[in-house]
Design brief:
By secondary structure, the chain is α/β, with parallel strands linked by helices. It has helices at about 5-25, 55-65, 80-90, 105-120, 145-165, 180-185, 190-210, 235-240, 250-265, and strands spanning about 45-50, 70-75, 95-100, 125-130, 170-175, 215-220, 275. It has a single domain (about 40-275), classed as NAD(P)-binding Rossmann-like Domain (Rossmann fold, 3-Layer(aba) Sandwich). Helix 2 runs parallel beside helix 3. The longest helix has 25 residues, at about 145-165. Mean pLDDT is about 90; it is low at about 5-30. It binds NADP nicotinamide-adenine-dinucleotide phosphate (NAP).
Length: about 280
């Protein structure tokens, strides 16, 4: 038998075996959904948003809290900002806690989920949002900048998604943040775009692994968004605005609204996808 025939036979055998294996390692019994049944009301549910002391994460945490979710805010160093996000949510009638954890550390990620479970009894929505952007031409990128970015974006998000795969309750949602940079292929963005391309692979594969549990997993790719991460001079921001049909770059709330749309009732059928939330940026 040729190599090609062999790999095709192996692939078919794996595909046939996968659903049973996945059901055994996942929920006790597989759940199917009927059309129009995909409701995930926020009330009584909990969400973990990594990197939610500021920027897109903070806006997402506030939006999910408004939709009724109890929210665990995560940060690396900005304890004051995270505490302010908690205060804002509580002042608006929501429930939130803040928990410091470096997503690059698997034990810290586990402790983050433990803190959420202790406060809210379990998790229904996980947003793997924490990320950093170090950009430089290949010739000038330092080992340290490359390593830290991969630790945070690639390994860190893996740590979060692995814990989410183990602990998200059936019927939940898992979202990881990619970037329009993956498609834009900008000079200086090679390593950053690679770390974000990983999110697209993670989402597509994890969506299949969670078969039978009614958990949708997607990657959301913002375009240029007005946060501290977008550390570029005003002329470049203006240029980016011109590349968007709305004539402006995104605000964190624009992306948060798109994420919330996937999390709430009608989002269930969007699964294993890459969703661009970039206002049409090209
Ligand atoms: N802004 C954009 O134009 C844009 C475009 C495409 C994609 N994205 C993606 O969207 C996500 C959010 O970006 P943003 O613009 O909102 O960034 P941001 O304003 O810089 O906020 C980053 C957040 O991540 C947290 N964080 C960083 N490293 C962490 C770590 N190791 N462990 C835990 N938390 C960590 C930060 O916490 P501290 O405050 O404690 O440092 C902060 O809360 C990122 O994944 C980014 O790649 C952004």
């Amino acid at each position: 038998m040729s190599d090609t025939q062999n790999s095709r036979r192996n692939f078919l055998a794996l595909s046939a075996a996968a659903p049973a294996a996945l059901t055994l390692s996942g929920a006790a019994s597989a759940q199917t959904s009927k059309a129009g049944e995909g409701t995930l009301p926020g009330t009584g549910r909990a969400a973990i948003v990594t990197g939610s002391s500021r920027g897109i994460g903070a806006a997402t945490a506030k939006r999910l809290a408004k939709d009724g979710f109890a929210v665990t805010i995560n940060y690396l160093t900005s304890a004051d900002l995270a505490a302010q996000v908690v205060r804002d949510i509580v002042a608006a009638g929501g429930r939130a806690i803040a928990h410091q954890a470096d997503v690059a550390d698997p034990a810290a990620v586990k402790a983050l989920f433990d803190a959420n479970d202790k406060a809210f009894g379990g998790v229904d929505v996980v947003i793997s949002n924490a990320g950093i952007m170090n950009v430089a031409p290949f010739a000038q990128m330092t080992d340290e900048a490359f390593h830290r970015m991969m630790l945070t974006n690639m390994r860190g998000s893996f740590n979060v998604l692995r814990e989410a795969a183990r602990r998200t309750r059936d019927g939940g949602r898992i979202i990881t943040l990619s970037s329009t940079s993956v498609r834009a292929r900008r000079a200086t963005h090679g390593a950053y775009a690679a770390s974000k391309a990983a999110q697209e692979a993670y989402a597509g594969c994890l969506a299949k692994e969670l078969a039978g549990r009614r958990i949708s997993v997607n990657a959301v790719a913002p375009g240029p968004t007005n946060t501290r991460l977008l550390d570029v001079p005003a002329p470049l921001r203006a240029q980016a605005a011109q590349m968007t049909p709305y004539g402006r770059i995104g605000e964190p709330e624009d992306v948060a609204n798109a994420i919330a749309a996937l999390c709430l009732s009608d989002g269930e059928w969007i699964n294993g996808q890459l969703v661009f939330a970039n206002g049409g940026f090209f």
